[in-house]
Amino acid sequence: MRRRNRRGGLPEDHVVVNALSDSTNAHSLKRRVVREAGLVRAPGPVRDDPRPEGELFTFSYGAAELAWERWVFDSGPDELALAQLGPLLFVDETIWSTLGSALNPERGRLLVLPDLKGSTLNQVRRRIFTVTAMTAMIHCDFKGWHVVDVGAGDGLLSLVAAQGGAASIDLIDSDAQALELAVANLDRNRGSSLGIRVIHDDLRNTSGVLRQLTRTSRPTAILTSIGSWPEIYDVTNADAIRMVPLLEASAPAVRVRVELLLGAGYYLGEPWEEGGRRWSARVEAFFDDLAEVQRTGMETCGTTAKAKYNGVLFTEAWTATARSGGRAGSRSAGHEPTS
Questions:
Q1: Cβ distance 23 to 139 under 8 Å?
Q2: For residue range 133-173, what is the model confidence (pLDDT) as tens digits?
Q3: Which of 12, 225, 248, 288 could cysteine-pair with 264, CB 3.0–4.6 Å?
Q4: DSSP labels, 188-210
């Protein structure tokens, strides 16, 4: 289905050059790791289709397409060792322990995960939503910002924000084990240079979550990749979006400014059956959330990050920014995803 963009939103040239957008040497470093560790391309998630995932799924931001590759140890197709999204290189701890001395000059370009195999990047569908969110994040500037990661899971979005220069991060999740993984991933890569606050709470407890959030005068970004999955989760991206005015109004002594909002996790593809359930597209949730963003006074950007499966839209991630004239600016019409 073709969807037209009725409103341009922010100019498409709002993309900034930042710590994440520099892909210099990323491919050559990946080739070096693959060669020295003896890695092989991971098969895609589709049965009876031998093509690697990077040929089945494409990730883009506007007209710019990002390379997506997964590499495994030759001991098995599930032994994920390296994943690349454009300039981002995620490697398993075993790669670093084996090649660390040789790769030490490149340490700042690698995101080392204690258990890449057990991460979101090795989960069949969830990784597509996560990678789409990362695709949007690569084109955002987080340097010196405070980030609120709602439904943080294992913290990979926070890790990307930290790689982009974020100064502090609030991790929110109701899953204590997931939060432990998130902290481990952040500590492994940024250590004491990053301020981390862990909020083990349910997003439905809005007042309780708000009381625990960091109040800072730094620009704040809220990341939410929950999507809308009522069969699985009791909360959605809409719950995170509604936090924007509440957070800004909750600290009169500190002028909290939510300058960036990112939403992902929407399934927009064809229905599929799995585990005795039939899963359908969440197009209505996508539109409803964009309308909710407008009600906060923020403005959705005209450019979105997209994942396509064999050329057909699978999911899309949007970003929204504070209006230059402040929250009181006039509202404009909604924005539709494009296939």
A1: no
A2: 999 999 899 999 999 999 999 999 999 999 999 999 999 99
A3: 225
A4: HHTGGGSEEEEEES-TT-HHHHH
| CA 7 – CA 247 distance, rounded (Å) | 28
CA distance 90 to 189: 11
What is the pTM assigned to this prediction?
0.87
What are the chain's domains?
26-119 (no CATH), 123-322 (3.40.50.150)
Distance between first and last Cα of the chain: 7
Q: Is the dihedral of CA 58, 59, 63, 66 positive or negative?
A: negative
C-alpha torsion sign, points 146, 149, 155, 160: negative
Q: Which of 18, 243, 56, 40 is nearest to 139 (CA)?
A: 18
The span from the CA of 73 to the CA of 71, in Å, is: 7
What are the DSSP calls for 119-154, one per residue? SGGGSTTHHHHHHHHHHHHTTS--TT-EEEEET-TT
Nearest to 71 by CA among 126, 140, 117: 117
Instruction: Specify the DSSP class assigned to residue 43.
Output: B
Q: 182-237, pLDDT tens digit by residue? A: 999 999 998 778 999 999 999 999 999 999 999 999 999 999 999 888 777 889 99
By mean pLDDT, which of 16-30, 87-101, 216-230 is the weakest?
Answer: 16-30
Q: Residues with Cβ < 8 Å from 264, sequence gap 6 or more?
A: 129, 130, 132, 133, 136, 224, 225, 227, 237, 305, 315, 316, 317, 318
Residue type (1 letter), 331: R
Read off φ and ψ for residue 90, nearest 5 degrees. Answer: -100, 130
Q: Which of 44-48, 126-130, 270-274, 296-300 has the lowest mean pLDDT?
A: 44-48
How far from 219 is each of 128, 215, 232, 261, CA to CA, in Å?
28, 11, 32, 11
CB distance 268 to 313 below 8 Å: yes
Nearest Cα to Cα of residue 36 among 83, 88, 103, 90:
103
Using alpha carbons, select from 324, 325, 326, 321 the residue that is nearest to residue 299.
Answer: 321
Amino acid identity, residue 65?
E
